[in-house]
């Protein structure tokens, strides 16, 4: 016979399954971008180009409207990326339509203020936008190439804000070009650095790529300072960033018991370095 001794059975209350904390609606609706570090990449190049335009005594209206166009355009890009990534679900379509309409209106106003020559600036942005949206549609929007292309487009805004026509750039003193390249060196480095801390954490090969980028940018700044009089303050900033690109991963994700850094913490730190970048630009250009 089967002997069931219930006295030896221990009954314990069932442990409830952990409840996943739902993310706020704004994180997935497409209305508000949720990438902390992207704000500096969007705003800083426009600020530098606009400041340079004012500093040279040229019109303010164009640059200010361009800034609104660029900001809302970023919202449109984000909303479109979310919609494409969702396989074009209807609930993500409204932000695309609303932001898209506002962007179109601001684009026409910017064009009216700047003149027909502004259209030539569209040429380098179209392939970047096409690649970025294609990556979003295939759910690879976080790919390294996509990040670097987006950074390149954002840094180009330094020139767009400073000069309404690309034809003005060759006859300029090169300050805007230098600032755009400095932004490219810095923000391109943030793409590598943040990935080495989060998505590629523990990947020694990717860490080497990240440090290599930062060292190359530092070397370029030193050479530019020696040959062209490029302010040495940039080399100092990039030297600090070289140390950061290696030190933080080594004390953090490259160790099993290393420090943990959240995306928000990294984004706030990038904000501090972005302020340092602007201070150098304002005081040396």
**Low-confidence parts:** 1-26
What is the beta-strand fraction? Answer: under 5%
From the spread of the alpha carbons, the general shape counts as flat
Structural class label = mainly alpha
Estimate the mean pLDDT confidence: 90
Q: What distance lies between the first and last C-alpha atoms, to the nearest angstrom?
A: 94 Å
Please bin the fraction of helical residues. 55-70%
Largest sheet: none
User: What value does the Rg take, in angstroms?
Assistant: 24 Å
Secondary-structure element sequence?
A: HHHHHHHHH
Number of domains as seen in the coordinates: 1
**Count of DSSP-assigned helices:** 9
Number of strands: 0
Give a quick summary of the entry.
67% of the residues lie in helices and 0% in strands.
Overview of this structure, please?
- InterPro entries: YwiC (IPR025576).
- The chain crosses the membrane at residues 37-54, 60-84, 96-113, 119-137, 144-164, 176-194, 206-226, 232-254, 266-284.
- This is YwiC-like protein.
- Keywords: Membrane, Transmembrane, Transmembrane helix.
- The chain has 285 residues and is mainly α.
- It has one domain (33-284).
- It contains 9 helices and no strands.
- α1 (38-55) runs antiparallel to α2, α1 (38-55) runs parallel beside α5 and α1 (38-55) packs antiparallel against α6.
- The chain is flat.
Which helices and strands, and how do they pair?
Layout: H1 38-55, H2 61-85, H3 93-114, H4 122-137, H5 144-162, H6 175-197, H7 204-228, H8 232-251, H9 263-284
Helix pairs in contact: 1-2, 1-5, 1-6, 1-9, 2-3, 2-4, 4-5, 5-6, 6-7, 6-8, 6-9, 7-8
